[in-house]
Amino acid sequence: MPARSFDVLVIGSGASGLAAALSAETVGARVALATKGSIQACNSAKAQGGIQAAVGPEDSPDIHAADVMRSSHDTANPELVEVLTSEAPAAIHWLEELGVAFTRENGGYRLARCGGASQKRLLQVGDRTGHAITKALREAFESGGGSELPNHPLAALEQTEHGWRARCVAKDGGTVDVDAGAVVLAAGGRCFAEARARGELSTNHPNATGEVTRIAVELGAEARDLDALQYHPNGGAWPATMQGYSIPETTRAYGAVLLNADGEEFTDSLGPRDAVSQAIFDEVEAGRGVQTEDGRPAVWLDTTRIPEADAGVSLPYMLRRYRGAGIDPLRERILTYPVLHYQNGGLVIDEDGETTIEGVYACGEIAGGTHGRNRMMGNSLLECCVFGRRAGRAAAEKAMA
Q1: How high is the pLDDT of residue 240?
Q2: 3-class DSSP state for residue 388?
Q3: Is beta strand 297-302 parallel, antiparallel or unpaired with respect to 334-343?
Q4: Contact, 40 vs 141, CB < 8 A?
Q5: Which pLDDT score is estimated for 147?
Q6: How is 276-315 classified by DSSP, letter by letter?
Q7: How many Cα atoms within 13 Å fall on the side-chain side of residue 170?
Q8: Catalytic-role residue among 128, 138, 252, 273
């Protein structure tokens, strides 16, 4: 079968891939979106907490950037951070134009302060923000002229005279070649595979196994901080049906605190993710943790301190999940333990998302530098939108030049 030909091929259908595909289409490119599983299957849709943007009256992109750099322990790329935070408000307005309805109160956005942040800047759609964003992006892409290639995992990528040829595996086991002037890699990280290899739990979709990163690195793309994998501080530890569930960090933004077996607070519950996770590991190692019924380590997350009104607006999905499992988080504490969550590092990119290989772009979790070695909550969905839009536009312009 002859190769199908497009201006831009996007690999991955999470928020970054969808944003890139939409952006490339907007400037007139012929776009194909290939993904490992269904178009709906991605990590972005599982993101619950929210998306950061400096839209509050006392906030600014510079303050947001300073929080990012501090949380990364000054390992993030300052140029990428400046792009991320300065374009955040515009990304929010773009999402609203696509139909994302962020939770509002008192005539403005309902903003929460998340771990590592100095200001309230987390926008939410209840506690299913990622689902709302990916749904809006996907519906916008599907209403356009782009082509979808679901169940077409990338197997190989090679340079051609006029761009790139991607070899994808079809559902029947055969191969499909796709030619494109430029390629955007938006296939996410590898935490599901890493957790499986370690015998640990992960919040990730089973498709998060990292093959596309490996393909790019073998082609010669530079990478950074690939060893820096992030634990979500609040993985569900019990009951068994909640294990691997990422308890929204907004529980702590609205008043929940971490307690040891003696009911004592042992860390700043609104600290950066790595600090909070390490504090939990240390508390358990010191013998002050709690054991779940199946013998797993844990500590308490005292969710009874969350006002019912806040929980009803910002944590409805979490409440349904736990109440369905027989626990009411507003009446009793819940057991939690860090769970493997996010690949902080990835392919080296410039401000337009281009990797060190000309014509190959990367955005979202597969890219490195924006978060350094420790990501703040709420900046992943933001990175997907900001750099997805940039990468899609730059790839289209290069392909059509």
Answers
A1: 94
A2: helix
A3: antiparallel
A4: no
A5: 97
A6: HHHHHHHHHHTT--EE-TTS-EEEEEEGGGS-HHHHHHH-
A7: 8
A8: 273
Q: Where are the beta strands (DSSP E) in 39-162?
A: 51-52, 104-105, 108-109, 122-123, 147-149, 154-160
Say whether 273 is catalytic. yes
Please report the pLDDT score of residue 1 as a whole number: 66
H, E, C per residue of 7-40: EEEEECCCHHHHHHHHHHHHCCCCEEEECCCCCC
What distances in angstroms separate CA 157 from CA 8, 18, 26, 133, one per listed residue? Answer: 14, 20, 25, 29
Confidence (pLDDT) at 48: 87
Instruction: Assign residue 369 a region (left: φ > 0; alpha: ψ between -120 and 50; beta: otherwise).
Output: left
pTM above 0.85, yes or no: yes
Asked if 7 and 30 touch (Cβ cutoff 8 Å), the reply is: yes
- Give the integer Cα–Cα distance in Å for 72 and 373: 6
Q: Give pLDDT, residue 29.
A: 98
Which residue has 């994808």 as its token pair? 168
Residue 129: φ, ψ to 5° = -65, -45
Closest C-alpha to 250, from 128, 386, 365: 128
Q: Is 368 in a helix, a strand, or coil?
A: strand
Domains in the chain and their CATH numbers?
Answer: 4-190+344-400 (3.50.50.60), 231-340 (3.90.700.10)
DSSP 386: H
| Cβ-based neighbours of 122, under 8 Å, separated by 6 or more | 49, 50, 51, 52, 111, 112, 113, 114, 250, 253, 377, 378
Alpha-carbon Rg for the chain in angstroms: 21
Question: Taking the mean position of all CA atoms in its chain, how far away is CA 21?
Answer: 17
Which residues of the chain, if any, have pLDDT below 70?
1
Contact 351/80 with Cβ under 8 angstroms?
yes
Residue that the structure tokens 């300073």 belong to: 66
d(CA 45, CA 363): 16
Q: Give me 134's structure tokens.
A: 């990916």
Please name the residues in contact with 278: beta carbons below 8 A apart, sequence gap of 6 or more. none
Say which DSSP state 108 is in.
E
